[in-house]
Design goal:
Elements (H helix, E strand, L loop, with lengths): L1 H28 L19 H34 L15 H30 L6 E8 L2 E6 L4 E6 L4 H6 L12 E4 L4 E7 L4 E5 L4 E5 L5 E5 L5 E6 L12 E7 L1 H11 L21
Helix pairs in contact: 2-3
Length: about 290
């Protein structure tokens, strides 16, 4: 019996070492803001308050389910060792245990109620949009995105992925970098109206904690408030056809002066009208 328990202890220690190594590796790889990293296993760092709340909720649930898994594993191990045929040749004859049945009914209900309270609070916060500073209309189609700024009088422009050669030459992530990104000012509430022209797409930016379907004939709404500047990437998250993987989303969050300068650069240039040249006075009539 001692040999069995020592073997189980060594196995648990090895498993803990592996999990610790994985956690350290995840922390080492997940350090680039706004984009995925090769071999990364953790969530992207948050760039909005909502995303930070989502990550905290996820991590809290991870501790809860880990505790449940360890509890169940411990109970199974105890039962296997204590009540196997060799250790317990004469099995018990009872079939019910009222206190245990009450415990395994009430405890899961309390756990789910606790999860629901935090989940509903987070869902409410995600949908409780403050007064927006501006609106961006996003239109998805096979296979690119259109961005339109009605408040700034900026007509829709199309965002397509940067070519692989250009991305490599500029040391930028291919299939994430675009030729025409979406711009937003830091610290401002941006309302995003999302729709589609052909099939269902999905507008998703992980660092902002937003993901919403783009459906033809329907205008869906989400929002974000970035708390730092930088470039943040996303992708269409709904299978939408052969070139589904060629629908990257690039959002550049800049300072307010930089955003104002970008808006000014997108305004139509006034057309210069040439001044009319006065015609020469007619020659005086011959006397």
């Amino acid at each position: 019996m001692d040999f069995r328990f020592s073997g189980i202890t060594r196995l648990a220690a090895r498993a803990g070492t592996v999990l610790l190594g994985v956690a350290i590796a995840g922390g080492a790889f997940a350090d680039i803001l706004g984009q995925p990293v090769d071999k990364g296993i953790d969530l992207q760092p948050a760039a909005t308050h909502i995303r930070a709340e989502q990550i905290a909720f996820h991590n809290g649930l991870l501790w809860v389910i880990s505790a449940i898994v360890l509890l169940v594993l411990g109970l199974l191990t105890y039962i296997i060792v204590r009540f196997n045929k060799r250790a317990n040749p004469e099995p018990a004859r009872f079939s019910h245990n009222t206190p245990i049945e009450i415990i395994w009914t009430v405890v899961p209900v309390l756990i789910l109620m606790g999860i629901a309270i935090f989940s509903f609070r987070l869902l409410y916060e995600e949908h409780d949009m403050p007064r927006p500073y501006m609106t961006v209309k996003v239109t998805g189609r096979q296979w690119n995105w259109d961005y339109e700024y009605p408040d700034q009088k900026i007509s829709a422009y199309t965002s397509t992925p940067m070519s692989e050669d250009d991305a490599k030459a500029k040391n930028l992530p291919y299939l994430l970098e675009t030729n025409a990104p979406m711009y937003a000012p830091v610290g401002q509430v941006v309302r995003v109206d999302v729709t589609a022209e052909d099939v269902i797409h999905s507008f998703s930016v992980p660092a902002f904690g937003i993901k919403i379907d783009a459906i033809p004939g329907r205008l869906n709404e989400t929002w974000f408030k970035a708390d730092r500047t930088g470039t943040f990437y996303g992708q269409c998250s709904q299978l939408c056809g052969a070139d589904h993987s060629y629908m990257p989303i690039e959002v550049k969050v800049v300072s307010q002066p930089e955003f104002d300068a970008w808006v000014a650069s997108k305004q139509p240039k006034p057309t210069a009208v040439a001044a009319a040249t006065p015609t020469a006075a007619p020659a005086a009539a011959a006397r």
